[in-house]
Amino acid sequence: MLLLVLPTLVIFELSLVPEIQPGEKVIPSGLDNYCRVLGFDQCQWSNFDPVYLQVIARSLIFAFGTTGICLLLGFPVAYWLALQIPKRWQNLLLLSFVLPLWTSSLLRSYAWKTILRPTGVLNSILTTVGLPPLDLLHSTSAVLIGMSYSFLPYMVLILYASLEKLDRRLLEAAADLGANPVEVFFKVTVPQTLPGIAAGCLLVFISGMGDFVNPELLGGASSMTVSRLIYDQFLGAARDWGFGSALSMVLITAVSIAIALMIRFGDASPKK
Q1: Does 62 lie in the same domain as 104?
Q2: pLDDT by residue (tens digit) across 193-236?
Q3: What is the pTM of this model?
Q4: Which residues, at least 6 apart from 139, have a Cβ–Cβ distance to it below 8 Å?
């Protein structure tokens, strides 16, 4: 109540006050800020400018893209750790894989900035082997790389926990009945690990929607996200706490829906 519900109610109250500045009296007066989020100035439906909807769409693209990349990369790693590696090595390899989480996310983003910049490590290697340099920094690709690197360990940890509980007798039975490895994977492995896949995807999506550091450092001015826009409204030059609060409520609502889905479909026990 003290640390979550009450602050959220305060933000909601501020979101009902248009163009409120720090120190001004809070007098809720309508939904103008939410209309601005939807692209309508002062709820005048004839004045439509989708600039903020584009920011929200970009945030969703980053979150969904990061989720897809983490799933594609994380599932093979988690499968390898859970089913292919001897038990005595699993904990050590799992620990080594999540070691980046012990480092500040800010340092990790700066490291990727050093790697991806025009005179960075990646282009130095490409130039050395005779390949053309890549202009990745301050682009969507750089943001997706940084976000995927940051959230991949979460996906691997959740998928590993799900795959470790996999009933291997079903894999053997499917093989004995003539199923090839691809059929075994899609008809036996995936159905049993669907709760883990759902939980991992939702966790990465939630983290991606609220990420501020990677888009700020790796994306540049063209990669504005909801988190960066909220920052500008509260601490930047705009200083419109009412509009920032409305954007915050939109983000809180989206994350709350994702959390509810994770609680509903992210059961840790595998389906059989």
Answers
A1: yes
A2: 888 899 899 899 999 988 999 998 998 777 889 998 888 888 87
A3: 0.85
A4: 219, 220, 222, 223
